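step 3/5: co-fold with 6-O-phosphono-beta-D-fructofuranose
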Amino acid sequence: MPAPIVVASNRGPIAFVRGADGSVTAKRGAGGLVTALSGALAASGGLWIASAMTDEDRELAGRGRVDVPGDDASAYSLRYLGFDAGLFDRYYNGWTNRVLWFLHHYLWNLPQTPIFGNDTQDAWDAFVAVNRAFAEAMAEEGGRLGPSTAFLVQDYHLSLAPAMLKELRPGARIAHFSHIPFAGPSYLRILPERFRTALLEGLLGADVVGFHTPAWADRFLLSCRLLDGARVNLRRRTVRWHDREVRVRVNPMGLDVRALSEEAARPEVGRAREELRAWKGDRAMLLRVDRAELSKNILRGFIAFDRFLETHAEWRGRVVFLALLNPSREDIPEYAAYVGECVRAAEFVNERWGSASWRPIDARVRDEYAQTLAAYAHYDALLVNPTLDGMNLVAKEGPTLNTRDGALILSETAGAFQELQRWALPVNPFDVDQTAAEIAEALDMPAEERAARRRGLRGAVRRNPPSRWLASQLSDLGLG
Ligand code: ADP
Ligand code: F6P
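step 4/5: write tokens
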């Protein structure tokens, strides 16, 4: 009998939304965590506990589980936890995305931010309350499913839940996995001591703490040295904490190639592919696909494209840069300001270089998944230049669906770089001149080299299916 699996994450695989005609439909959740975990759990089955993100989810939260159908008997079920709107706002916008996301992605502008004041404690209290609700729900489900249940707690939103669950069920087998980077000790010290200690202690409630890359795992281990009483072994990647040994593991998350290909075969994606083909005409296409997110480095991407057009006059009029930016975390002022700046930068480039018949950058800030999958087919170069990224699944999806042997320009600081670097064109995300040079290199690359690199990228993606990630998590917990 396989071990029962309980996954917990803030965002669930689908959110329910009510349309203009009053009918309720399921909408895919945004972000890499959802893409990756949906793939892993569709094959294994299990229960996924997530926050209710919409009014319709909140209605369902009162009614227990919802089945998420798959193509075989092992589809999984979903349980939403509903929170008071004010509490959820303080937890999600106030703490997890304004403090923890900025912390782990090094996004603060230190002369000005962060400022920890009165509202920090309120946001923290909400974070504690939501983590406690998740821990209690997991403990309850574990009571029903039995002692061999694997609890797979996901991401920074639930950093406290492992210790809370361990307290409720001391025998529980708990893995925590971060889909984002982890701040090193110097940056972590920006957080007041009471918060950073609680965060580290929360994570050390797990038996296994997982990351996508060795760099994030090692930063976590070094940060644990800030904790009184923690004994860190960097070589073995363990932390002796109270009377337990916590193992820190590197387990890069892969892509469900089959599920992605099935999505891309849907009729609306086919229609979008035709529209994009007509829109781009004979021009080459540079593509970027991101949540409209500060760490994705969209602004420097546009500045680099400007440099590229300045230094490569032969490409003027012959290339279009399509930027598909899925709106994200719109209640956070820094996000709104950043997206505005990106759009203005794109307009600047268009005014500087464009003509009546050529608009160099088309920046589309809207939620259009079908168009994203369609665009992957047509690019000649894909620009993935985050300043820091836990993994970045776009870098894996693009080469999987591309039909033009397009090149991948990839930040050295994206988690995906460790698996894909041999076949990608590497960039330092802060160096716009280098990025401009790599755009030229990508577009001018000889056909055989493009084909060889694309084969390499596809192979690397296929070698790491999400089922491997799941199997490693279970075996690390002694349940494999
Ligand atoms: P992050 O987790 O930071 O958002 P990733 O690159 O790892 O970054 O993952 C982004 C995921 O979101 C990809 O799987 C991508 O296909 C998906 N995606 C892109 N646009 C949309 C959209 N409009 N709706 C839902 N998912 C989207
Ligand atoms: O993949 C990292 C991540 O932060 C996930 O935890 C999250 O679901 C995703 O990005 C998208 O962010 P959000 O859930 O805030 O829209």
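step 5/5: annotate
The chain has 18 helices and 18 strands.
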